[in-house]
Amino acid sequence: MPSFLKPIKAPNLFDYPKYWAECYGIAPYLPMTRQEMDELGWDSCDIIIVCGDAYVDHPSFGMAVIGRFLESQGFRVGLICQPDWRSADPFKELGKPNLFFGVSAGNMDSMINRYTADKRMRSDDAYTPGGEGGKRPDRAVIVYSQRCKEAYKDVPVVIGGIEASLRRIAQYDYWSDEVRRSVLIDSTADILLYGNAERAIAEVAHQLSNGRHVDDLIDIRGTTVIRQAVPDGWTEIDSTRIDWPGKIDVINNPYEYDHDKASCSTKEEGQVDVNINADADTSAGVKKEPAAPVKSANVTEQVVKIIPMPVQRQFDIDAKKTVIRLPSYEKVSKDPVLYAHASRILHQEANPHNAKVLVQKHGKREVWVNPPPIPLETDEMDGVFGLQYQRRPHPSYGDAVIPAYDMIKTSVNIMRGCFGGCTFCSITEHEGRVIQSRSQESILKEIEEIRDKVPNFKGGISDLGGPTANMYQLKCNDDDTQANCRRLSCVYPTICKNLITDHSPTTKLYRKAREIPGIKRIAIASGLRYDLAIKDPEYVKELVTHHVGGYLKIAPEHSEDATLSKMMKPGMGSYDTFKEMFERFSKEAGKEQYLIPYFIAAHPGCTDEEMVNLALWLKKNKFRVDQVQTFYPSPMALATAMYYSGRNPLKRLSYKRGEKVFAAKNLKQRRLQKALLRYHDDKGWDVIRDALKAIGRADLIGDGENQLIPAEKKGRSYTGGKNRSNRSGKTRFNKARGSQWSGKLIK
User: How would you write 29-45 as a 3-class SS string?
Assistant: First the structure.
């Protein structure tokens, strides 16, 4: 049986010997032109980062974090930001890099950045000077990578960032309504880095600088590479099927050859021919290419051992030499249920301490996903966030406003990761479930830098948070337990008994931050996990008393348990408890403050009937939401697998018995659910009336207190009842919360 796993330790990020170019020192800004390189005395760049965002030298922008980190390792790093992708010439602006191109679409996926949930092109781009749209291509990672190869075909291309990270295996593409291949193949890049990439990028950069070829970098954590076959001597867990027979025998390896039992003309019962077709199915559905031919009867081959997924726990397996074979791209692109199965396996192999290598065949090539990177320790987080950032946009942009920078220029990212596991959110897939926290000293120092460096600073910190506001320093109470855990969420369906829920480190941080001279107010703008917050009333009191400026945004997402279960979100009982605490502590502080809840329309599992119930809940509680979020199927999310497959990957899958999930897919269905969230808006009343009649709820049409919309259009918006979020009844949500971009910007 498998042995109990111990936590894996990684070398410190800053222990690598510095590259020789360290002698050039720290650049005021990473150069974007040859003139800037000349001023620094550089004849060339060691690494050039190509990015879809404008260059903001701030730790909330991925190109700045990776660029400054590589600079700290001694490398000369240049930036090509938002290049004209219509030719290769802009990609030659800084000359030929000595080591590699690093390519990222930017802080957001380029398709989500460019298109709304209804697939309409956006007119603006928050990561571009002046908010101008159209400065990046669709599928920017693919386009940029191919242009880099066109510019210098012999230079390795390393892709990373959120867009590459969420496309590391075959993934459903909402915009084309099909399953696409791994972006590593489509981009023609040499290696893909997923998640927060400091560990992987350091290893890649130093190994290439030491003379290794990029094709040799096959086993770095947090990377995805292409290989031709599973190496000899490895164990392969076959997870290419869903429904296995009741009695499962270990799969005979078609590449084993016993000379004593075979001859050129006869074959004993149960043997498999040595020259078996590599594309033919075995009795258990396994397809494999030979790792190596049998040369002689006297040679013993270290063949790949194949074990069916259902019986893997019966074997003592060396995890360091074990892969899980996912269904091939060709299979998942044609079989939605197999796609959901592959998604389920991917998410189960997300713990960096126990995850196995994943392999997925694309034609004759194997997409090989190494285990996730080991999370950063506190001193490493401090080191990354303490690099020499200017904390402002590159001077070449002049006075042009970059909206994303304006939003976060006075905010502080105190942690990474999220163990919530919400199925519609991509933060967990990208940053992981293990919380990586900075030290209090590091955070307070950054607040002082904001005070001293940000032009026209008025004394306000816009946020102390991260992907979630209140997961700072929360973790499993036992490292060994965490190393062996395979839960998709630490807080669903219930909060794990091993999770530390003490918010006192966050409470102390808030108090220390308020004491800094020159700091007048500190807001908490990141999404609040209220089911965690209610475990620590002192934290809620501190938050409500000092850090809520009249309104606090929280995200119940829905009111109905059936839909909430597909989201992996808590029931409304937690919301009611938090609401009571919020109102009580607001009253004690002598403040009139209100909760603003966010909801998602058209999430997989949400039927029209459930959306009607949510609309009734909103009316009962006198909420009139203006800006609402329609579910956006982002690559690799579990909810996206539900949307595409119509199955629930949170439960065991089966063609005949697996749980089926309704998803509002056509534009009419999605607009109806969005209209129900805005039940008060007369523009949606006609479609709501038709829907209520269709589902047998015509009793909700009328002017009664318990009815949803008027019997006939009155030519005005519904104004019945005050809104608890605003005494005038005119509350507007200032910003729709993206389905996978809750809270801080992520790289």
Answer: CCCCCHHHHHHHCCCCC
Neighbour tally for 264: CB within 10 Å:
5
**Alpha-carbon gap, residue 57 to 484, rounded angstroms:** 38
CA of residue 647 relative to chain centroid, distance: 21
Helical ranges in 349-394 per DSSP H: 378-385
Chain center to CA of 516:
34
Residue 509 pLDDT exceeds 90: yes
Residues written for the chain: 747
CA-wise closest residue to 142 among 98, 186, 81: 186
- Between residues 427 and 368, the one the model is more confident about: 368
Parse the chain into domains and list their residue ranges. 21-228+364-369, 235-356, 410-680
Q: Is the pLDDT of residue 53 over 80?
A: yes
pLDDT per residue over 370-401, tens digit each?
999 999 999 999 999 999 999 999 999 999 99
Is there a contact between 46 and 394 (Cβ–Cβ < 8 Å)? no
Q: Which two tokens stand for residue 211?
A: 């003379």
Q: Answer whether 88's CB lies under 8 Å from 147's CB.
A: yes
CATH of domain 410-680: 3.80.30.20
Rg of the chain on CA atoms, in Å: 27
- The answer to whether 138 and 173 have CB atoms below 8 angstroms apart is no
* CATH topology classification for 21-228+364-369: Rossmann fold (3.40.50)
- Helix/strand/coil for 565: helix
pTM of the model: 0.88
Model confidence at 563: pLDDT above 80: yes
